[in-house]
Amino acid sequence: MQEILTGVHWAEEPLSRLCHMVSNMRLLHVQPSTGEPAEVTVKCRFLLYRNRVETETDLLVGKQEDVLCRVDGQWHIRQRKVILDQNVLLAKNLTFLF
Questions:
Q1: CB-based contact 62:45 (threshold 8 Å)
Q2: Which residues of 51-71 are buried (b: 16+ CB within 10 A; e: fewer)?
Q3: 76-86 per-position pLDDT tens digit
Q4: Cys-Cys with 11: which of 20, 81, 85, 93 at CB 3.0–4.6 Å?
Q5: How many domains are contained in the chain?
Q6: What are the residues whose beta carbons fall under 8 Å from the beta carbon of 9, sequence distance 6 or more?
Q7: Is residue 90 part of a domain?
Q8: CATH number of residue 59's parent domain
Q9: C-beta separation of 49 from 77 below 8 A
């Protein structure tokens, strides 16, 4: 029997359905440079809903702080810190990005 490779990690087979909700976005710090800012620090709150197969549903709530830097006119994530509000994480895996 030949195995079919999908390019998806086995923990995400079938793929999760995700919904991200982001709120309370705040600009904490701007690193100035000549012209436009070179680096910014932003903070937000999030709610992430994930559904997999028939019965797996996860609801993750928390906050994140990102340091974004400008490279060739585009913003890139340099650093990300995620803090979940849950004391116990019941999700079977965290194979997705916040």
A1: yes
A2: ebeeeeebebeeebebbbebe
A3: 999 999 999 99
A4: 93
A5: 1
A6: 95
A7: no
A8: 3.10.450.50
A9: no
